[in-house]
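Appendix B, example 12.
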Amino acid sequence: MTAELTRGQNHPLPRARLEIRVSAGTPIVAGATLGDENGRVHGVEWVAHPGTPALPGLEVSRQAAADHRLAVDLDAVPDTVHRVSVLLALPAGGQGPGRFGAVAAPFVAVTGLDGDEVASYTITGLEAESAVVALELYRRQGAWKVRAVGQGYTGGLAELLTDQNLPQAHQLARSIQEAVAGGLARSVPAPPARTADGNRSRQAATPAHGPDHGTAAPQGTPGPVPPVSPYDARGVSDPQTPGVPAQHGTQQPYPAGPGDSATGGQPSAPTAGGPIDYSHPRRQNAAPPPPPPTAPPAAPGQPARPVAGDATGWSMEERLYNQVWGMFEDLARTTAAYRSAVDFADSRMEKELDQVLSDPRSRIGGQGDAAREAARTRHTQLVSQAREALDRDVAQLAAEADVVEPALPAAYARWDNPVWHAYRVPMEIPMALRLGDLHLPETDRIRIPLLVRLPLERGLWIDSGRSASLDGSFADSHEMRRLGLETAVAHAARLLAVYPAGEFTVHVIDPAGSGTRALAPLVQTGVLAAPPALGAAGTADVLARLTQRVDLVQMALRGGAPDALPPGLDTSQQLLIVNDFPHGFDDRAVNQLRYLADEGPAVGVHLMMVADREESAGYGPLLDPLWRSLLRLTPVADDHLADPWVGHAWTYEPALVPPGSQVLQQVLTQVAAARRSWDR
């Protein structure tokens, strides 16, 4: 299964002999640098480029081309090499584009010799950059991995090579461009579109209107030249070579980059016989999506039928993520418009009533009553019009939510979604995680999933101090602590379920042992790193080990040697669940907890606290930074979350397991089995 990487993600490489395939909408230069264990490139002899296309274990193309195949043999790479960085650049001084923002986003895939993809990465977000570090192959504890980098440079190859600590960076950049300039007459333009679904290095797409806006080959270029295969010593690929398609065996990339299409990046109206745009009428798409999903056309005069995954993105997961947050923004805007219209109607009615009461003549006879009745009638009309507009938008969003919710992957789905019945331990980390649902009082029937990106950028605080929920029910402090810990267990189980085996570890501190019942699903299935820590001694031991891990990783990163960690150090993401804070915590433990909350997320150590802030009031303002650094959630519905766009107070409902459901135990049992298999 292919891993579709996003920036910063990594993936293990199962074999040593690989191909790195690059697809772009214009001729580009491909190269690579070899780095030592600190990432340092020692000289120009450690750089593979069109002028020097072959290094031990590595071979790149000799010319600029719209499609490249770089050959890599990791077993032949010298032992002193720990990092192979793949570089892409636009040719300088030619007639082609001068920045990546004006062309289609480059697509890079790591494949085996049989053509099967191992990992792929679409380099999005580039604007003025003319050179980019696309991928990085690196050694990790004796094995090789690939990481999606996507680091662009506006200064071109010279700036990129300078950042690689090459003293001859500018001279080498000039020699590379000179070597490329000598072969531009042979540069390979973007191949034509292919009707059959062959190489999946990029899906074909054409604009709804107008001609193809892709970048043409430089003027004076002769007819298409077969792409150069780095595995062929003659310099021309053999169409009969297994796993290497012929000249027209690659699909055409997107004809224009973000904002470069004939419609200016906006959704275009459907044409007769053409694809139908199912995007929400108020949704603005910032990047060109893959071909839109197909669905039966709507009847004349009816709104477009919603389709799951109609947002932008290079994978279904990314499209669904963007669609969910598009629905959130749409609901926020339409509710803000309704509230603004109601406020205007209220202020107008008050102004008209003030005018009536300020005129003494209106108090004689029935003139005043008629004026007041007219003001109220106008107010009712304005509110009714606003409500009709809100109901229309809400109906469309509700229809979209009904389609999107069943299509969500496990990481985004509720616990009652059937997707959990087909759960299997994933091979890749998802983009985001669902922590609950959000809704507004005017649109109570619509629930928007609250998605947070992974890995977590901040810790979580399950507030067990609120004694009343929005439905008017009350719960005592003991009940709130129980509900809070059950919520934390549900969140921790979801995190364990969406990470690959061995990539996520959970620790629990329960000093008084009061959470034994709520923690039972984690303890009985064996997914915890160790039994819950009890008492002050257990608390101190767990905090000391996690604090030491943060220190070691930070020192390795600051020293430029991220791979030089002690043998046996658990490099997986770590989650610490703290129950009944501050019980069992002395001053040293409190300071360690603050340190983990501040410094831990950057190095893969995350905090989840179940606590009542009032119980730690004795520490005074010392703990204020701790509470502010955590994302506050509640075990019952509460309207404590506000969005930064329009300032709505959103009602949050936690993602809990339905009463009587065994889905949590079933999922955690599979996670535990996968962990045992991974540890063998």
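The CA atoms of residues 50 and 599 lie 43 Å apart. The mean pLDDT is 79.
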